[in-house]
Design goal:
Strand content of chain A: 15-25%
Organism (chains A, B): Halomonas salipaludis
Number of helices of chain A: 10
Oligomer: homodimer
Strand order of the largest sheet of chain A: 4-3-2-1-5-6
Order of helices and strands of chain A: HEHEEHEHEHEHHHEEHHEEEEEE
Pfam families (chains A, B): Creatinase_N, Peptidase_M24
GO molecular function, one term (chains A, B): hydrolase activity
CATH architecture of the largest domain in chain A: Alpha-Beta Complex
Radius of gyration of chain A: 22 Å
Keywords (chains A, B): Hydrolase
CATH topology of the largest domain in chain A: Creatine Amidinohydrolase
Protein name (chains A, B): Ectoine hydrolase DoeA
Distance between the termini of chain A: 52 Å
Largest interface: A-B, 89 and 89 residues
CATH class of the largest domain in chain A: Alpha Beta
Low-confidence stretches of chain A: none
Chain lengths: 394, 394
């Protein structure tokens, strides 16, 4: 350890997570897991550096106490100060291999597997790991020269039930979400450039509170304005906001890679159109009814059914999923890519699961959005942010 | 078109790019190219929305004027207002397919290929496209039921030579890089939280200038401090900066997805240690000597050789590559993932190629970094930012 660093999670918490992962590995009959998803690596080892644009992976053997982290050589120190791993569990590949068409960093992974006699075991590879291309994963599969088990998001699913410490960080992220949303709302006015609004949002996202600073969110805020609010994923422009314009703002604070997303709807002017204020009110009614209905043991399909009644009652016309599991995340998004709140998902709620529930109403020429991030509690659901769901008038 | 939008590039420029891509496709013997990399999609069609966390792709046929963009249904409008594509070239997949273990959005891609009689042609797939996993790409390869050509970063390489309009945006990004670096340097002082420094950086990155706002950079700033500056990719903490501490700050402004990265070194205190001030001075000397040597027709290996002389002369010990091609980019990084400035790279310089040249000196317990983004001109190299390479004292 070259620098005294206090990590966000104890070694014990990381060991508990690793045990849960190994249990899942055992249950699907694999002894070694290769996973390259930066969020899964962070969750398992604590490693957090902007190094995931080059190939890196984590080797978990059910017979080895620690995972082996394989990263670029120039990032070795980053792993030493940002994980509890011992030095012989952090291995660096040589720099000439980056973007080199004649050699691949995962050559080192293959030789490590042989060195530790792991390639003879039953190997599973997360073939759906974020930031890892078909080319990278194929290099491993071809190199192993034996059948492997294709794993999809095994660790993502383990991540769904949070520990109390993870919930703490999501609540800290929630405070940052609130102040960032307020910074955005405060800046919104006719004539202000959209980019100036988002500049204030970003400032608040990173500044955090007086007790703690913010981490970078896994994706940028989205703020589609006017007719563009009919679609959810557009960022800002540098055009000035117009009088009598509506917009939606969706963003998240982040704390140690934990997120707490939130969306709100704004009208710039004195008298919002009735369809916009009605849609916002009804979306909020749907969010509240759905949250009130939640209890552990319920399936996500049942949660969706509660929403669907309000959706039909007010003819809101929302056809997309109502939400998804959230937590620790790296680019490109704060999503965990596991369970969704929708008719087909039979995932059963367990305390300390966390979801982003999004009532996004996208019509032909305008949109409204009200969302909440909630935690499943012993008896119901607790929203992490505390912010009126009204249509904000600016 | 549901909203009047002025796009950053003309239809003519996009057509020229597409022609260049089709020429490359022809030269490697493919008639259809599937590419899912968000930067390649943006480059070819102009599409720019935060939708790349779900599978999306672009189908280019050398026999069809426009590419076909296949995205999630709720993002259709985003593509209509952010591309020149006609409506029948933008196809949306149904929402139930997102994160659904029983169906895949690329089913639609396969049926489109059949519908347009494209699957009978010679198909190439970019198997190394960012944001697209082994699982996603394998779904296409298996579904095509015939041999395909594995393509690696074909469009990335086409992107290397910029048009004048692209250079304009990189220069606009450079102005934002300068103001963001200044915002960071101005905030740095003993006792200030690292997160408060970066909050100011982000504010400047998005605020931009009085003439134009900023886009979100493809990756966060990095600011390793003190002993952690011995490694390049750590972000900030919320600890206060310490007296007599050094740090490096690397960041980029962004304008319409175009980047212009820059790194500088800072010492907090009155008298910097000699090894730090020497390393910064020598790194700067190396950067300047290398830039002065550049001319079109030179190979990147030759560019590196100029640097290597300074590296050896001052015993700087830099073993990693000296830089890489940059331009338009989406998360996780501003890199184009093509050519590198290093001994093995024989890429020949052509006017309007753009590179980030990084003299990063990472010792055991400290680091110094001086970088410049430059454009190859008709006769030499032009740096895009104008900012002293000194060791900044705060």
């Amino acid at each position: 350890m070259t620098s005294p660093v206090s990590l966000p999670f104890t070694r014990q918490e990381h060991e508990k997570r690793l045990d849960a992962i190994k249990k899942e590995m055992h249950s699907i009959g694999i002894e070694v897991l290769l996973d390259s998803d930066p969020a899964n690596i962070f969750y398992t080892t604590g490693y957090d550096a902007v190094s995931y644009y080059t190939p890196q992976t984590m080797i978990i053997s059910i017979y080895r106490t620690e995972p082996i982290l394989v990263i670029r050589k120039q990032d070795l120190l980053a792993a030493k100060v940002r994980t509890h791993l011992s030095e012989d569990s952090i291995i660096g590949w040589q720099d000439y291999m980056v973007d080199n068409e004649h050699s691949h960093p995962f050559e080192l992974v293959l030789s490590l597997l042989n060195e530790h006699s792991l390639s003879r075991l039953k190997v599973g590879i997360d073939v759906d790991a974020g930031m890892t291309t078909h080319f990278d994963t194929s290099f491993l599969i071809k190199g192993l020269k034996k059948p492997i088990t294709e794993v999809r998001r095994l660790i993502n699913f383990v991540r769904m039930i949070k520990t109390d410490r993870e919930i703490d960080y999501m609540k800290q992220a929630a405070r940052i979400t609130e102040s960032s949303m307020r910074a955005g709302l405060d800046a919104i006015a006719a004539g202000v450039r959209e980019s100036d609004v988002i500049a204030n949002v970003y400032h608040a996202q990173i500044k955090g509170t007086s007790e703690y600073g913010g981490d970078y969110p896994a994706n940028p805020p989205v703020m589609p304005t006017g007719r563009r609010s009919a679609t959810p994923h557009l960022t800002w422009s540098d055009e000035p906001l117009m009088p009598n314009q509506n917009l939606t703002l969706e963003l998240s604070g982040a704390r140690f890679r934990y997120h707490c997303p939130l969306a709100r709807t704004v009208y710039i002017g004195k008298t919002p159109p009735k369809d916009l204020s009605d849609a916002t009110k009804h979306a909020s009614e749907g969010v509240q009814a759905t949250l009130r209905s939640i209890s552990p043991g319920m399936a996500l399909s049942e949660v969706h059914a509660v929403w669907e009644k309000i959706n039909i009652k007010h003819n809101l016309g929302k056809t997309s999923r109502l939400g998804y599991s959230v937590g620790c995340a790296f680019p490109p998004s704060w999503l965990e890519r596991t369970a969704s709140i929708r008719p087909e998902d039979t995932t059963v709620l367990v305390p300390n699961m966390t979801f982003h529930l999004i009532a996004g109403i996208w019509k032909n020429h305008w949109g409204a959005e009200v969302s909440e991030t909630f935690r499943v509690t012993d008896r119901g659901a607790e929203t992490l942010c505390d912010m009126s769901q009204e249509l904000y008038i600016r």
